[in-house]
Design a protein that fits this description.
alpha+beta, CBS-domain, 2 domains, two-stranded antiparallel ribbon, globular, protein kinase regulator activity
């Protein structure tokens, strides 16, 4: 079974309002950001970013909400990131499922673009939910490591003592 999904890519010079409308119209929650000047993907724009944009400008009496409609994604990134631009965390389709999960956890991110190393195209965006869905669908066909036979307590996952109950 193919686990397809829509993929929307935004140029960083796109207006924030148009980006938001495009996410909503396509039913996606995030989009990779392409910077034409640098000729590479520089980040992700998510629904959470739009909430942060509204929150930041709602609290400022100097900026009317209609003023931010004309702002570009690159303007927001400059204001929000304040020069602390980090490279986009991504993987290639040649990486393992373990690599993907490890990258999501290590980098504390919710979306991980899969980028083709040859073409430079984004092929897919992995999320925790999509990985769990894959494991649910195909888990019965995969070999089971020994640790999956152990209980949660035996694996030491969670807190089992010194719990205060009120």
């Amino acid at each position: 079974e193919y686990m397809g999904s829509k993929l929307v890519v935004f140029e960083t010079t796109l207006q924030i309002k148009k980006a938001f409308l495009a996410l909503v119209a396509n039913g996606v929650r995030a989009a990779p950001l392409w910077d034409s000047k640098q000729q590479c993907f520089v980040g992700m724009l998510t629904i959470t970013d739009f909430i942060n944009i509204l929150h930041r400008y709602y609290r400022s009496p100097l900026v009317q909400i209609y003023e931010i409609e004309g702002h570009k994604i690159e303007t927001w990134r400059e204001v929000y990131l304040q020069g602390s631009f980090k490279p986009l965390v991504h993987i290639s389709p040649n990486h393992s499922l373990f690599d993907a999960v490890y990258s999501l956890i290590k980098n504390k991110i919710h979306r991980l673009p899969v980028i083709d190393p040859i073409s430079g195209n984004v092929l897919h965006i992995l999320t925790h939910k999509r990985i769990l869905k894959f494991l649910h669908i195909f888990g019965a066909m995969l070999p089971k490591p020994r640790f999956l036979q152990k209980t949660i307590h035996e694996l030491g996952i969670g807190t089992f003592r010194d719990i205060a109950i009120v």
